[in-house]
Amino acid sequence: MNEKNDDFKITVKSNTKDLFAFTKLVPKRKKRIHKAPAEPLTSDPINDLARKLHPIRQYLVIDEIKDETKTTKTYKLVSDPDFNTEDLAFFRAGQYLSLKVDVNGVRITRPYSISSSPKDALNGFYEITIRKEQHGFLTEHAWENWKVGTKITSSGPEGLFYYDNLRDCKQIVGLAGGSGITPFRSIAKDIIDENSDAKLVVLYGSSDEEDIIFYEEFNELEKEYPDKFKAVFVLSCEEVTLEGCEQGFLTSEIIKKYADANNSSFFICGPQIMYNFVEKELEKLNIPPKRIRREAYGEIKDIVKYPGFPQEVAEKTFNIKVSIGEITKEIPGIATESVLVAMERANLAPPSKCRSGECGFCRSLLISGDVYVSPACDGRREADKKFNYFHPCSSYPISDIEIQVPRSLD
Ligand code: FES
Protein backbone atom coordinates (compact mmCIF):
# COMPACT_ATOMS: atom_id res chain seq x y z
CA MET A 1 0.00 0.00 0.00
CA ASN A 2 1.26 3.46 -0.85
CA GLU A 3 0.33 5.38 2.31
CA LYS A 4 0.76 8.84 0.78
CA ASN A 5 -1.76 8.34 -2.00
CA ASP A 6 -3.86 5.76 -0.17
CA ASP A 7 -3.58 3.55 -3.23
CA PHE A 8 -3.92 -0.18 -2.88
CA LYS A 9 -2.17 -2.64 -5.12
CA ILE A 10 -4.07 -5.85 -5.45
CA THR A 11 -2.46 -8.83 -7.11
CA VAL A 12 -4.79 -11.51 -8.33
CA LYS A 13 -3.15 -14.84 -8.90
CA SER A 14 -5.06 -17.14 -11.14
CA ASN A 15 -4.64 -20.00 -13.46
CA THR A 16 -5.22 -19.16 -17.12
CA LYS A 17 -7.18 -22.40 -17.34
CA ASP A 18 -9.81 -20.75 -15.14
CA LEU A 19 -10.32 -18.07 -17.77
CA PHE A 20 -10.77 -20.64 -20.52
CA ALA A 21 -13.18 -22.60 -18.37
CA PHE A 22 -15.16 -19.42 -17.90
CA THR A 23 -15.54 -18.91 -21.67
CA LYS A 24 -17.18 -22.33 -21.86
CA LEU A 25 -19.84 -21.47 -19.28
CA VAL A 26 -22.21 -19.61 -21.58
CA PRO A 27 -22.27 -22.22 -24.37
CA LYS A 28 -22.76 -24.95 -21.73
CA ARG A 29 -25.69 -23.08 -20.23
CA LYS A 30 -27.23 -22.56 -23.68
CA LYS A 31 -26.97 -26.29 -24.35
CA ARG A 32 -28.74 -27.08 -21.09
CA ILE A 33 -31.52 -24.60 -21.83
CA HIS A 34 -31.92 -26.12 -25.27
CA LYS A 35 -32.21 -29.64 -23.81
CA ALA A 36 -34.66 -28.66 -21.05
CA PRO A 37 -38.34 -29.64 -21.40
CA ALA A 38 -40.57 -26.95 -22.89
CA GLU A 39 -43.27 -27.17 -20.18
CA PRO A 40 -43.15 -24.41 -17.57
CA LEU A 41 -41.89 -25.39 -14.12
CA THR A 42 -44.78 -25.96 -11.76
CA SER A 43 -42.66 -26.02 -8.63
CA ASP A 44 -39.37 -24.59 -7.50
CA PRO A 45 -37.58 -27.04 -5.18
CA ILE A 46 -35.42 -24.32 -3.61
CA ASN A 47 -38.41 -22.11 -2.80
CA ASP A 48 -40.34 -25.15 -1.58
CA LEU A 49 -37.51 -25.99 0.82
CA ALA A 50 -37.28 -22.36 2.01
CA ARG A 51 -41.03 -22.34 2.68
CA LYS A 52 -40.76 -25.59 4.65
CA LEU A 53 -37.92 -24.26 6.77
CA HIS A 54 -39.40 -20.79 7.27
CA PRO A 55 -43.19 -21.07 7.05
CA ILE A 56 -45.14 -17.87 7.65
CA ARG A 57 -47.47 -19.85 9.87
CA GLN A 58 -47.99 -23.39 11.12
CA TYR A 59 -51.34 -24.87 12.07
CA LEU A 60 -50.91 -27.03 15.14
CA VAL A 61 -53.08 -28.94 17.52
CA ILE A 62 -52.42 -30.00 21.13
CA ASP A 63 -51.84 -33.75 21.21
CA GLU A 64 -50.80 -34.24 24.84
CA ILE A 65 -50.48 -32.19 28.02
CA LYS A 66 -48.07 -33.11 30.80
CA ASP A 67 -48.01 -31.49 34.25
CA GLU A 68 -44.38 -30.68 35.08
CA THR A 69 -44.95 -28.79 38.34
CA LYS A 70 -48.00 -27.27 40.03
CA THR A 71 -47.67 -24.25 37.77
CA THR A 72 -45.98 -25.63 34.67
CA LYS A 73 -47.24 -27.77 31.81
CA THR A 74 -45.62 -29.18 28.70
CA TYR A 75 -47.81 -29.12 25.59
CA LYS A 76 -47.07 -31.52 22.76
CA LEU A 77 -48.05 -29.92 19.46
CA VAL A 78 -48.56 -31.80 16.21
CA SER A 79 -49.69 -30.72 12.74
CA ASP A 80 -53.38 -29.92 12.54
CA PRO A 81 -54.79 -32.41 10.00
CA ASP A 82 -57.55 -29.92 9.09
CA PHE A 83 -55.01 -27.48 7.66
CA ASN A 84 -52.11 -27.58 5.26
CA THR A 85 -49.20 -27.86 7.71
CA GLU A 86 -47.84 -31.25 6.68
CA ASP A 87 -44.29 -31.30 8.01
CA LEU A 88 -43.27 -29.23 10.99
CA ALA A 89 -40.46 -26.80 10.28
CA PHE A 90 -37.07 -27.96 11.49
CA PHE A 91 -35.38 -25.70 14.04
CA ARG A 92 -32.16 -25.11 15.93
CA ALA A 93 -32.24 -26.10 19.59
CA GLY A 94 -32.90 -22.94 21.59
CA GLN A 95 -35.27 -21.30 19.10
CA TYR A 96 -38.85 -20.31 19.86
CA LEU A 97 -42.30 -20.36 18.27
CA SER A 98 -44.41 -17.23 18.28
CA LEU A 99 -47.90 -18.45 19.18
CA LYS A 100 -50.85 -16.51 17.81
CA VAL A 101 -53.86 -16.75 20.04
CA ASP A 102 -57.25 -15.07 20.36
CA VAL A 103 -57.81 -14.16 24.00
CA ASN A 104 -61.26 -12.71 24.71
CA GLY A 105 -61.54 -11.51 21.13
CA VAL A 106 -58.07 -9.91 21.11
CA ARG A 107 -55.44 -11.43 18.83
CA ILE A 108 -52.07 -11.59 20.57
CA THR A 109 -48.71 -13.26 20.00
CA ARG A 110 -46.35 -14.72 22.58
CA PRO A 111 -42.94 -16.29 22.00
CA TYR A 112 -42.29 -19.65 23.70
CA SER A 113 -39.04 -21.60 23.49
CA ILE A 114 -39.36 -25.06 22.01
CA SER A 115 -38.42 -27.48 24.79
CA SER A 116 -38.18 -30.63 22.66
CA SER A 117 -35.32 -31.75 20.45
CA PRO A 118 -35.05 -30.67 16.80
CA LYS A 119 -35.14 -34.38 15.98
CA ASP A 120 -38.67 -34.51 17.42
CA ALA A 121 -39.82 -31.98 14.82
CA LEU A 122 -38.76 -34.45 12.14
CA ASN A 123 -40.85 -37.05 13.98
CA GLY A 124 -43.86 -34.76 13.83
CA PHE A 125 -44.03 -32.82 17.08
CA TYR A 126 -42.83 -29.85 19.08
CA GLU A 127 -43.08 -29.42 22.82
CA ILE A 128 -43.44 -26.10 24.57
CA THR A 129 -43.38 -25.76 28.33
CA ILE A 130 -45.36 -22.92 29.86
CA ARG A 131 -45.42 -21.68 33.42
CA LYS A 132 -48.58 -19.98 34.61
CA GLU A 133 -47.79 -16.38 35.47
CA GLN A 134 -49.76 -14.22 37.84
CA HIS A 135 -51.86 -11.92 35.64
CA GLY A 136 -50.23 -13.53 32.58
CA PHE A 137 -52.62 -12.64 29.77
CA LEU A 138 -51.90 -15.75 27.72
CA THR A 139 -50.88 -18.22 30.41
CA GLU A 140 -54.11 -17.77 32.38
CA HIS A 141 -56.07 -18.24 29.17
CA ALA A 142 -54.06 -21.38 28.34
CA TRP A 143 -54.66 -22.88 31.79
CA GLU A 144 -58.39 -22.41 31.56
CA ASN A 145 -58.95 -23.25 27.92
CA TRP A 146 -56.24 -25.38 26.36
CA LYS A 147 -56.91 -29.08 26.22
CA VAL A 148 -56.03 -31.98 23.94
CA GLY A 149 -57.46 -31.05 20.54
CA THR A 150 -57.15 -27.26 20.98
CA LYS A 151 -55.91 -25.69 17.75
CA ILE A 152 -53.02 -23.24 17.86
CA THR A 153 -51.38 -21.18 15.15
CA SER A 154 -47.68 -20.41 15.35
CA SER A 155 -44.90 -18.83 13.36
CA GLY A 156 -42.04 -20.90 12.05
CA PRO A 157 -39.12 -21.38 14.46
CA GLU A 158 -37.42 -18.08 15.25
CA GLY A 159 -34.62 -16.63 17.33
CA LEU A 160 -30.85 -16.48 17.63
CA PHE A 161 -30.40 -18.24 20.96
CA TYR A 162 -28.77 -21.42 19.71
CA TYR A 163 -25.45 -23.17 19.98
CA ASP A 164 -23.19 -22.93 16.96
CA ASN A 165 -20.12 -25.14 17.01
CA LEU A 166 -18.21 -22.80 14.69
CA ARG A 167 -18.79 -19.84 16.98
CA ASP A 168 -19.15 -21.24 20.49
CA CYS A 169 -16.89 -23.23 22.82
CA LYS A 170 -17.45 -26.95 23.18
CA GLN A 171 -18.31 -26.43 26.83
CA ILE A 172 -21.64 -24.61 27.09
CA VAL A 173 -22.76 -23.17 30.40
CA GLY A 174 -26.49 -22.53 30.61
CA LEU A 175 -27.50 -19.97 33.22
CA ALA A 176 -31.23 -20.44 33.62
CA GLY A 177 -33.85 -19.01 35.92
CA GLY A 178 -37.46 -20.15 36.38
CA SER A 179 -39.14 -21.10 33.11
CA GLY A 180 -36.00 -19.91 31.28
CA ILE A 181 -34.86 -23.52 31.58
CA THR A 182 -37.00 -24.63 28.62
CA PRO A 183 -34.56 -23.94 25.72
CA PHE A 184 -31.82 -25.78 27.64
CA ARG A 185 -33.88 -28.96 27.65
CA SER A 186 -33.94 -28.70 23.86
CA ILE A 187 -30.20 -27.97 23.64
CA ALA A 188 -29.38 -30.90 25.96
CA LYS A 189 -31.51 -33.31 23.94
CA ASP A 190 -30.01 -32.05 20.70
CA ILE A 191 -26.43 -32.59 21.93
CA ILE A 192 -27.38 -36.15 22.90
CA ASP A 193 -29.39 -36.91 19.73
CA GLU A 194 -26.62 -35.61 17.49
CA ASN A 195 -23.86 -37.20 19.57
CA SER A 196 -22.22 -33.79 19.47
CA ASP A 197 -18.82 -33.31 21.09
CA ALA A 198 -20.22 -30.34 23.05
CA LYS A 199 -21.21 -30.56 26.71
CA LEU A 200 -23.94 -28.54 28.38
CA VAL A 201 -23.67 -27.67 32.07
CA VAL A 202 -26.88 -26.02 33.26
CA LEU A 203 -26.87 -23.95 36.41
CA TYR A 204 -30.55 -23.61 37.09
CA GLY A 205 -31.80 -21.07 39.62
CA SER A 206 -35.20 -21.61 41.24
CA SER A 207 -36.86 -20.21 44.33
CA ASP A 208 -37.56 -23.60 45.93
CA GLU A 209 -37.86 -27.31 45.22
CA GLU A 210 -41.43 -27.07 43.97
CA ASP A 211 -40.34 -24.50 41.45
CA ILE A 212 -37.89 -26.79 39.61
CA ILE A 213 -38.99 -27.95 36.18
CA PHE A 214 -37.55 -31.19 34.67
CA TYR A 215 -35.84 -32.29 37.93
CA GLU A 216 -36.16 -36.06 37.36
CA GLU A 217 -35.67 -35.82 33.63
CA PHE A 218 -32.44 -33.83 33.97
CA ASN A 219 -31.09 -36.20 36.61
CA GLU A 220 -31.75 -39.16 34.33
CA LEU A 221 -30.13 -37.45 31.35
CA GLU A 222 -27.08 -36.65 33.44
CA LYS A 223 -26.80 -40.23 34.69
CA GLU A 224 -27.06 -41.63 31.19
CA TYR A 225 -24.89 -39.05 29.39
CA PRO A 226 -22.41 -37.67 31.96
CA ASP A 227 -20.01 -36.54 29.22
CA LYS A 228 -22.72 -34.49 27.50
CA PHE A 229 -24.93 -33.02 30.20
CA LYS A 230 -24.89 -31.84 33.79
CA ALA A 231 -27.58 -30.01 35.74
CA VAL A 232 -26.97 -28.12 38.97
CA PHE A 233 -30.08 -26.90 40.77
CA VAL A 234 -29.50 -23.69 42.70
CA LEU A 235 -32.26 -22.80 45.15
CA SER A 236 -32.62 -19.38 46.72
CA CYS A 237 -34.80 -20.58 49.64
CA GLU A 238 -33.30 -20.81 53.14
CA GLU A 239 -33.39 -24.55 53.52
CA VAL A 240 -32.34 -26.98 50.82
CA THR A 241 -32.90 -30.69 51.35
CA LEU A 242 -33.20 -31.98 47.79
CA GLU A 243 -30.29 -34.08 46.59
CA GLY A 244 -27.83 -32.42 44.22
CA CYS A 245 -28.97 -28.85 44.93
CA GLU A 246 -26.94 -25.80 45.88
CA GLN A 247 -28.31 -23.05 48.09
CA GLY A 248 -28.00 -19.45 46.91
CA PHE A 249 -27.87 -17.70 43.55
CA LEU A 250 -26.03 -18.05 40.25
CA THR A 251 -22.86 -16.43 41.55
CA SER A 252 -19.38 -16.44 40.07
CA GLU A 253 -18.37 -18.92 42.82
CA ILE A 254 -21.03 -21.41 41.75
CA ILE A 255 -20.08 -20.91 38.10
CA LYS A 256 -16.40 -21.52 38.87
CA LYS A 257 -17.24 -24.58 40.93
CA TYR A 258 -19.01 -26.36 38.07
CA ALA A 259 -17.55 -24.94 34.86
CA ASP A 260 -14.24 -24.08 33.28
CA ALA A 261 -15.15 -20.42 32.86
CA ASN A 262 -12.16 -19.63 30.64
CA ASN A 263 -13.15 -22.22 28.08
CA SER A 264 -16.93 -21.96 28.04
CA SER A 265 -19.64 -20.13 26.15
CA PHE A 266 -22.40 -18.80 28.41
CA PHE A 267 -26.07 -18.86 27.48
CA ILE A 268 -28.47 -16.88 29.68
CA CYS A 269 -32.23 -17.33 29.79
CA GLY A 270 -34.58 -16.38 32.59
CA PRO A 271 -36.56 -13.54 34.14
CA GLN A 272 -35.42 -9.98 33.46
CA ILE A 273 -34.14 -9.47 36.98
CA MET A 274 -31.75 -12.40 36.62
CA TYR A 275 -29.89 -10.93 33.64
CA ASN A 276 -28.46 -7.96 35.53
CA PHE A 277 -27.32 -10.16 38.39
CA VAL A 278 -25.76 -12.88 36.27
CA GLU A 279 -24.04 -10.46 33.90
CA LYS A 280 -22.30 -8.81 36.86
CA GLU A 281 -21.13 -12.24 38.04
CA LEU A 282 -19.76 -12.99 34.56
CA GLU A 283 -17.95 -9.65 34.62
CA LYS A 284 -16.16 -10.79 37.79
CA LEU A 285 -14.92 -13.78 35.81
CA ASN A 286 -13.76 -11.52 32.93
CA ILE A 287 -15.86 -13.36 30.40
CA PRO A 288 -15.63 -11.47 27.09
CA PRO A 289 -18.99 -10.46 25.54
CA LYS A 290 -18.37 -12.69 22.51
CA ARG A 291 -18.74 -15.72 24.79
CA ILE A 292 -22.09 -14.61 26.22
CA ARG A 293 -25.44 -15.21 24.50
CA ARG A 294 -28.72 -13.91 25.87
CA GLU A 295 -32.20 -15.07 25.04
CA ALA A 296 -34.55 -12.18 24.35
CA TYR A 297 -36.78 -12.14 27.41
CA GLY A 298 -40.02 -10.75 26.09
CA GLU A 299 -41.73 -7.60 27.15
CA ILE A 300 -40.33 -5.60 30.02
CA LYS A 301 -42.56 -5.87 33.07
CA ASP A 302 -41.70 -2.71 34.99
CA ILE A 303 -40.55 -0.12 32.52
CA VAL A 304 -40.59 2.78 35.02
CA LYS A 305 -37.56 1.25 36.74
CA TYR A 306 -35.40 1.51 33.64
CA PRO A 307 -32.80 4.28 33.38
CA GLY A 308 -34.00 7.36 31.55
CA PHE A 309 -37.72 6.56 31.67
CA PRO A 310 -39.43 9.94 32.22
CA GLN A 311 -41.17 9.39 35.56
CA GLU A 312 -43.42 12.43 35.08
CA VAL A 313 -45.38 10.61 32.34
CA ALA A 314 -45.69 7.28 34.18
CA GLU A 315 -49.39 7.81 34.97
CA LYS A 316 -50.33 9.30 31.61
CA THR A 317 -52.21 7.99 28.61
CA PHE A 318 -51.41 9.41 25.18
CA ASN A 319 -53.05 9.42 21.80
CA ILE A 320 -51.55 7.10 19.17
CA LYS A 321 -52.52 7.67 15.55
CA VAL A 322 -51.81 4.39 13.77
CA SER A 323 -51.77 3.74 10.05
CA ILE A 324 -51.67 0.02 9.43
CA GLY A 325 -52.42 -1.33 5.97
CA GLU A 326 -55.52 0.51 4.75
CA ILE A 327 -56.65 1.47 8.25
CA THR A 328 -55.92 4.68 10.14
CA LYS A 329 -57.13 4.79 13.71
CA GLU A 330 -56.56 6.79 16.88
CA ILE A 331 -56.08 4.67 19.98
CA PRO A 332 -55.06 5.26 23.61
CA GLY A 333 -51.51 4.40 24.65
CA ILE A 334 -50.59 4.01 28.32
CA ALA A 335 -47.04 5.27 28.97
CA THR A 336 -46.07 2.12 30.86
CA GLU A 337 -47.35 -0.26 28.17
CA SER A 338 -45.56 -0.86 24.91
CA VAL A 339 -46.95 0.61 21.70
CA LEU A 340 -47.41 -2.98 20.52
CA VAL A 341 -49.71 -3.80 23.44
CA ALA A 342 -51.73 -0.62 22.78
CA MET A 343 -52.29 -1.76 19.19
CA GLU A 344 -53.21 -5.28 20.27
CA ARG A 345 -55.73 -3.92 22.77
CA ALA A 346 -57.28 -1.97 19.90
CA ASN A 347 -57.40 -5.23 17.91
CA LEU A 348 -55.26 -3.88 15.09
CA ALA A 349 -53.38 -7.20 14.76
CA PRO A 350 -49.92 -5.63 14.42
CA PRO A 351 -47.05 -7.88 13.32
CA SER A 352 -44.82 -9.27 16.08
CA LYS A 353 -42.74 -12.30 16.99
CA CYS A 354 -40.04 -11.90 19.65
CA ARG A 355 -41.67 -8.97 21.54
CA SER A 356 -38.15 -8.04 22.64
CA GLY A 357 -36.82 -5.67 19.97
CA GLU A 358 -34.75 -8.45 18.44
CA CYS A 359 -36.44 -9.87 15.35
CA GLY A 360 -37.41 -6.58 13.67
CA PHE A 361 -40.77 -8.04 12.65
CA CYS A 362 -42.75 -5.15 14.17
CA ARG A 363 -40.40 -2.42 12.82
CA SER A 364 -42.48 0.72 12.22
CA LEU A 365 -42.07 4.38 11.32
CA LEU A 366 -42.45 7.05 13.99
CA ILE A 367 -43.93 9.95 12.03
CA SER A 368 -44.24 12.32 14.98
CA GLY A 369 -43.97 12.41 18.77
CA ASP A 370 -41.65 10.61 21.17
CA VAL A 371 -41.27 7.10 22.48
CA TYR A 372 -39.07 5.75 25.24
CA VAL A 373 -37.04 2.82 23.97
CA SER A 374 -35.96 0.42 26.63
CA PRO A 375 -32.14 0.15 26.58
CA ALA A 376 -32.38 -3.53 27.51
CA CYS A 377 -34.27 -4.32 24.29
CA ASP A 378 -33.09 -1.69 21.84
CA GLY A 379 -32.51 -3.69 18.67
CA ARG A 380 -32.63 -0.69 16.32
CA ARG A 381 -29.87 -0.31 13.76
CA GLU A 382 -28.13 3.06 13.47
CA ALA A 383 -29.97 3.71 10.19
CA ASP A 384 -33.30 2.98 11.92
CA LYS A 385 -32.52 5.59 14.57
CA LYS A 386 -31.54 8.13 11.95
CA PHE A 387 -34.72 7.66 9.91
CA ASN A 388 -37.08 7.28 12.89
CA TYR A 389 -37.83 3.58 12.67
CA PHE A 390 -38.58 1.87 15.94
CA HIS A 391 -39.87 -1.39 17.39
CA PRO A 392 -43.31 -0.96 18.98
CA CYS A 393 -42.70 -4.06 21.13
CA SER A 394 -39.89 -2.35 23.04
CA SER A 395 -41.05 1.28 22.85
CA TYR A 396 -43.38 3.22 25.13
CA PRO A 397 -45.36 6.36 24.22
CA ILE A 398 -44.18 9.42 26.14
CA SER A 399 -46.16 11.95 24.08
CA ASP A 400 -48.96 11.79 21.52
CA ILE A 401 -47.50 9.93 18.56
CA GLU A 402 -48.28 9.13 14.96
CA ILE A 403 -46.93 5.89 13.53
CA GLN A 404 -47.01 3.82 10.39
CA VAL A 405 -47.01 0.07 10.95
CA PRO A 406 -46.57 -2.69 8.36
CA ARG A 407 -49.55 -4.97 7.95
CA SER A 408 -49.04 -8.41 9.43
CA LEU A 409 -48.35 -10.96 6.69
CA ASP A 410 -50.38 -13.52 8.54
S1 FES B 1 -41.62 -8.27 17.72
FE1 FES B 1 -39.52 -8.65 17.35
S2 FES B 1 -38.70 -6.65 17.23
FE2 FES B 1 -40.75 -6.32 17.80
Description:
The protein has helices spanning 16-35, 45-53, 118-122, 137-145, 182-193, 215-224, 252-258, 272-284, 339-345, 382-386, and strands at residues 58-69, 72-79, 96-103, 106-113, 125-131, 151-154, 171-177, 199-206, 229-235, 245-247, 264-269, 292-294, 317-324, 327-334, 364-368, 371-373, 389-390, 395-397, 401-405. The protein contains 10 helices and 19 strands. The mean pLDDT is 92. It folds into 3 domains: 51-154, Translation factors (Elongation Factor Tu (Ef-tu), domain 3); 171-177 and 191-294, Nucleotide-binding domain of ferredoxin-NADP reductase (FNR) module (Rossmann fold, 3-Layer(aba) Sandwich), CATH 3.40.50; 310-405, Ubiquitin-like (UB roll). It is globular and about 80 Å long. The strands form 4 sheets. The chain has a 6-stranded antiparallel beta sheet with strand order 4-3-6-1-2-5. Strands 10-9-8-7-11-12 form a 6-stranded parallel beta sheet, with helices on both faces. The longest helix is centred in the first third of the chain and has 20 residues, at 16-35. The chain binds FE2/S2 (inorganic) cluster (FES). Residues 352-355, 357-362, 379, 391, 393 line the site of FE2/S2 (inorganic) cluster. The site of FE2/S2 (inorganic) cluster has 13 residues, from loops.
Hetero groups in this structure are: FE2/S2 (inorganic) cluster
Determine the CATH superfamily of the largest domain: Nucleotide-binding domain of ferredoxin-NADP reductase (FNR) module
Taking all Cα atoms into account, the compactness measure Rg is 25 Å
> Separation of termini?
53 Å
Pattern of helices and strands: HHEEEEHEHEEHEHEEHEHEEEHEEHEEE
CATH topology name of the largest domain:
Rossmann fold
By DSSP, the count of extended strands is 19
User: In percent, how helical is the residue content?
Assistant: 10-25%
Strand order of the largest sheet: 4-3-6-1-2-5
By CATH reckoning, the class of the largest domain would read Alpha Beta
List unreliable stretches of 5+ residues: none
Can you tell me the CATH architecture of the largest domain? Answer: 3-Layer(aba) Sandwich
Q: Please state roughly what percent of the residues sit in beta strands, choosing from under 5%, 5-15%, 15-25%, 25-35%, 35-45% or over 45%.
A: 25-35%
The biggest beta sheet is recorded as: 6 strands, antiparallel
